[in-house]
Design a protein that fits this description.
Length: about 325
């Protein structure tokens, strides 16, 4: 059987990178799932335990959990058809993480790009930042997931998850854990608007580097206007030489489904310059996000509904997790 699992950190409001790299894939999968009899409901976790690997004010974390849930539902995730829940409400994640941590080595964890990037420059590096991929492997394997839709930045973690699953299976002569396969959409790495050598990230200190899905129109305009490009006046698609401008073209393509070359050709024919082009991209994004934002505005004020959604999701997730964790304990010789 196919089991799809994915997660998102409540470190801020989801941005266009999260949307085109992950959330949109989830929605598309959900919509094709009902036709696929062999597939169990998709499991989507708001991973709050991952979000505290770097310091987080409790009020802010709490606020972002609701905002993340409201954003996902507004983007089209149906909490009835899927399991949408908050990671810390299923205690087995932490418990399985311990067991899996005994199947991974320190050099394996030290090689992770995300760890290197996020620990760079910190005076004190939290252990949780280092063991993050172990908890992530537990998230996935707890539900015996077979498919994990993620952006490109998570491929290395997923590879490690497969290594851990293999190691566990070999150690205990079992095939209990499937080897989860990453699923990637078309837009797997949207770049930061301020520094195209980086990916767009929720945790980037500069909020101008990302467009959040609920940014109002004037903020979207401002952020696109400020987006770093280059000194050439006209439009061409060259991700290596003109990464900043090419990201804007990527955004247009993500929204409209055109090819970047088509967009560049049209702009050349019409001699559109960068400032005109930026206005065009802003307009497209504002229009595209409007229906999501309209739903979000209603939902975010209905805390009771959001609580019900997350509690119901946790109930469903706990049911699966409890059974699986019990089986895992038996495999390792525990009672
Ligand atoms: P943080 O900076 O706190 O790590 P993030 O923006 O990286 O936040 P995550 O919650 O870590 O977001 O990741 C959620 C999903 O979004 C993952 O599947 C990840 O691969 C995907 N993703 C994150 N950033 C991008 C991006 N810039 N382009 C495409 N996909 C992305
Ligand atoms: Mg991330």
């Amino acid at each position: 059987d196919k089991q799809i699992f994915s997660g998102i950190q409540p470190t801020s409001i989801p941005h266009l990178g999260n949307y085109f790299g992950a959330i949109k894939q989830w929605v598309d999968m959900q919509n094709s799932l009902s036709k696929d009899q062999d597939t169990r409901p998709m499991i989507i976790s708001i991973v709050d335990l991952h979000a505290i690997t770097l310091p987080k004010d409790p009020r802010i974390l709490n606020d972002y959990i609701y905002k993340c849930a409201a954003t996902l539902v507004s983007c089209g995730i149906d909490p009835e058809r899927n399991i949408l829940y908050q990671q810390s409400q299923v205690a087995y994640h932490g418990q399985l993480s311990w067991i899996l941590g005994c199947k991974v080595t320190m050099p394996q964890l030290g090689r992770m790009h995300q760890f290197k990037f996020k620990s760079d420059g910190l005076a004190e590096v939290p252990l949780g930042l280092y063991t993050y991929p172990v908890l992530q492997a537990a998230d996935i394997l707890l539900y015996r997931a077979t498919h994990v839709p993620v952006g490109e930045d998570q491929l290395q973690h997923l590879e490690l998850c497969r290594t851990i699953a293999d190691k566990f299976n070999n150690t205990y002569s079992t095939n209990y854990f499937p080897s989860p396969i990453p699923l990637q959409g078309e837009f797997t790495r949207l770049k930061s608007l301020r520094d195209p050598s980086k990916k767009m990230s929720k945790s980037d200190a500069d909020s101008n580097s990302r467009i959040e899905l609920v940014d109002p129109p004037e903020i979207i305009e401002k952020k696109i206007k400020k987006a770093v490009t280059d000194s050439e006046r006209l439009i061409s698609y060259k991700p290596d030489k003109r990464p900043g401008l090419s990201t804007l073209i990527d955004l247009e393509c993500a929204v409209t489904g055109q090819l970047p070359e088509e967009v560049a050709e049209r702009c050349m024919l019409q001699a559109i310059d960068k400032s005109e082009y930026k206005k065009h991209v802003s307009k497209l994004l504002i229009e595209h996000l409007a229906p999501i934002q309209a739903k979000y505005k209603k939902l975010i004020n209905d805390k009771k509904l959001l609580d019900d959604i997350l509690d119901d999701g946790a109930k469903k997730a706990n049911k699966i997790a409890e059974k699986n964790f019990h089986d895992i304990c038996k495999i390792i010789g525990s009672r």
